[in-house]
Each structure stands twice: as structure tokens, then as C-alpha cells.
Design goal:
- The chain has two helices and five strands; from the N terminus they run αββββαβ.
- By secondary structure, the chain is of the alpha+beta class.
- The chain has one domain.
- A five-stranded antiparallel β-sheet has the order 1-2-3-4-5.
- The protein is globular, with a radius of gyration of 14 Å.
Length: 99
């Protein structure tokens, strides 16, 4: 399931007012684009305090393409389809494996 069409019950204005471009609902999460210094970010899990994750793409076209085709289930792979970096927030119960 790719990005859901924006419907009458999804008000994009509050997200646009915060500077997000193309606010979209994906798998129950508000997502949107944001310009960065050298890349374009696809922000996911946007709420009143900010966003949960950000995927960075080389070009606006790469970011738009990802956002419109993303199912909301897996992060992109760095080095593929223009993705250059990930900023992912781990759940509170995440336990890092050390060796």
C-alpha cells in the first residue's frame, strides 16, 4: 500500500504551516518532505512535537518518488534510489547488541 490519497478528513494545513511539503498519510503515519542543507528529507511519524524518523535523499525527485511509493513498513537502503542517510528513532525497549 503506497501513500494514501489526501482525503477531506486529513487536514494538511497544520503540517504545511510547520514547513512540511506534500504532507501525506502513509500506513497511519503523517509524513512529509523537508528541505535540508544538502539533501531532501522524508520525515515520518510527524506530530505536534516534530517527527520520529527521517530518510535523506540526494534530490527532491528522489524524495518525492520514495514518499509516493512507500508502504510505511521498511526503511530505505542507504545507497539505493538516491537515499544517502537515515535518522531513525529506536523504540524505548530497544536493546543494542554489544560484543
Amino acid at each position: 500500500m503506497a501513500a494514501e490519497a489526501i482525503t477531506d478528513d486529513f487536514d494538511t494545513q497544520p503540517y504545511e504551516d510547520k514547513g512540511y511539503i506534500m504532507p501525506t498519510m502513509v500506513n497511519g503515519m503523517v509524513c512529509g518532505l523537508t528541505p535540508l542543507v544538502f539533501t531532501w528529507g522524508v520525515c515520518t511519524g510527524i506530530d505536534e512535537t516534530g517527527y520520529r524518523n527521517r530518510f535523506c535523499f540526494e534530490t527532491l525527485l528522489d524524495a518525492i518518488s520514495f514518499l509516493t511509493e512507500w508502504d510505511g513498513l521498511a526503511a530505505p537502503t542507504v545507497g539505493e534510489d538516491g537515499c544517502v542517510a537515515l535518522r531513525v528513532q529506536y523504540p524505548e525497549d530497544f536493546q543494542q547488541i554489544t560484543r
